[in-house]
Design brief:
Length: 342
């Protein structure tokens, strides 16, 4: 049985990697794929390893996580090729017959390993992307990111502020403009379906429902996700109505990170609504929200003026955000924990 080898950082995995591994599998009986990571990298190796296990469930493909802190280029160490030979032999556990790469290093490495080398799509004609390009501007290369891992690269934008400042309308407009998802305020849906008035016990299910909506919507978002409020808003209203605190909510309200926040000002008319009752407190509620943003150490963009001005300003900011690098916070263990329900 022929044993093939693919190795790389997969930082992050993309459809070029999928093409490489799929082609490699056609040319050998069993394939080992080494996920090589360094501690300093922004996407943890443990996460990339889990992604690859999910992307390639084939029992004939063995996925192995390599944590050796090896040099990355021959000029970094005179023993470069020998170090990598030892790492590969340790983690493959059997002789490699064919090395598959899409890189120039494939030929010299195959000679060190004493195996055949098959080069696949060196010039990126089949899949014109690289992991570096995805890290630098994920939304520009969105189509080449596997659906499984796209939620980690979604730019999450929160619209925040007190009652009747146009958050819902603007979120819906922006989602349409950028052909993506937006999350309505979960509290409204929850309270409209509830029999009886709101009470303090409603706040935890509201918070969990809103966060779950975010997690689910990110799975199908087209690079951007607009949130009509977030858990910081839920925390503010819990404090206003009940002078109370829920540790699960507080931790997430203050700890969750977003790519941008739009703070909508109160310079538009108040609109009556059966779920709104703080029209006389617009100034004080704005102060509460500003304090909450400070408590969460969250920067934000002011959104002011008439509706058309607000729309134009928001679109300009989002267009700039679309060109920005991946958000390293999205991959941290802490942010992943906060978006879970443990």
């Amino acid at each position: 049985m022929t044993h093939g080898l693919v190795l790389g950082k997969f930082y992050p995995p993309h459809k070029g990697h999928i093409h490489l591994i799929s082609e490699a599998k056609k040319n050998c009986d069993e394939l080992t794929v080494l996920i090589c990571s360094l501690q300093r990298e922004q996407i943890p190796g443990e996460l990339r390893f889990k992604w690859m296990l999910s992307l390639f469930p084939d029992p004939k493909i063995r996925i192995v996580w390599v944590q050796d802190e090896n040099p990355q280029y021959p000029e970094e160490d005179p023993d470069f090729w020998n170090l990598w030979r030892k790492t590969i032999e340790t983690h493959t556990k059997k002789k490699v017959d064919i090395l598959f790469t899409s890189e120039d290093y494939g030929e010299p490495l195959s000679k060190v390993l004493g195996c055949k080398h098959i080069l696949i799509d060196l010039n990126r004609n089949e899949v014109p992307v690289s992991a570096t390009k995805i890290r630098e501007a994920p939304l520009t290369h969105w189509d080449w990111i596997p659906e499984l891992i796209r939620p980690y690269f979604v730019k999450r934008i929160v619209l925040t502020g007190s009652e009747s400042v146009g958050k819902t309308s603007l979120a819906e407009i922006l989602a349409k403009e950028f052909q993506t998802n937006w999350i309505p305020e979960f509290a409204r849906e929850y309270l409209e379906s509830k029999v009886g008035p709101m009470d303090e016990s409603d706040f935890l299910p509201i918070a969990k429902g809103h966060l779950l909506s975010e997690v689910e919507a990110a799975k199908t978002s087209n690079g951007i996700l607009f949130l009509d409020t977030d858990l910081l808003t839920t925390k503010v209203y819990l404090e206003r109505y009940y002078e109370s605190e829920i540790p699960w909510l507080t931790e997430r309200a203050l700890g969750l990170k977003y790519d941008a926040s739009f703070f909508l000002d109160i310079d538009i008319p108040w609109i009556e609504d059966k779920l709104r009752d703080l029209g006389e407190e617009r100034e004080s509620m704005r102060t509460r929200f500003l304090q909450a943003m400070e408590d969460a150490n969250r920067s934000f963009h002011w959104i002011r003026g008439d509706y058309q001005t607000r729309k134009q300003e928001a679109i300009k900011i989002v267009n700039q955000l679309k060109t920005e690098p991946m958000n390293r916070e999205s991959f941290t263990l802490e942010q992943r924990r906060l978006r879970s329900f443990e």
